Amino acid sequence: MDAAVKRTRLSPAERRAQLIDLGVRMLAERSLEQISVEDIADQAGVSRGLLFHYFTSKHDFHVAIVRHTSAEMLARTAPDLELAPLEILRDVMASYVDYVSENRDTYVSLLRGTASGDPDMREVFEETRGEMARRVIDQLPTLGIDPDARTALSVRGWIAFVEEATITWLRSPDIPRDELIELLVTALPAVALGAGAAAALLGG
Predict the structure, then answer these.
(1) Residue 202 gets which letter from DSSP?
(2) What is the pLDDT of residues 137-169, one digit of tens each?
(3) Ordered structural domains, the chain, with CATH
(4) CA distance 159 to 170
């Protein structure tokens, strides 16, 4: 890294954000557990001890990376409420597929790597899925669906389907992107409503 960059004085918040950003960039090239404190400190031009001033441990740093990545994905897939209800869902799924396609190695590493077995990491994943579910449930009344315990459970199951289908597609893209998006979109009413009501909603 350029010496001038190394000498740059940053506020605590800016330095913490810089360290997380470096970790996120490394995550595109290696698994989370392979991201070392030494490499991050060296690239940021700080001592390993200073890095631990911002994060209590290597594990705390890794959790911060995962939390940042999850927040980025949620920001990229925020619903456009000016669209029609089904178009909102289609737009969100398109943004989701595009995001994970652009961040393929990171996405698969987090959902399928050792991080997924860590309680703190699972908490972040669950918070992310919870926010995704909340967004969907908030839109259900516009589709004529009254949210209840059954639909909430169905939406969580649909999110698991979206993750698994997308990971499988990333590894073996046997259908076009648009066909995958349509599959993800039509699966939600089918799961939440049942075949008859879903067909009516989708115009089938």
Answers:
(1) T
(2) 998 888 777 888 988 999 999 999 999 999 999
(3) 9-58 (1.10.10.60), 63-201 (1.10.357.10)
(4) 16
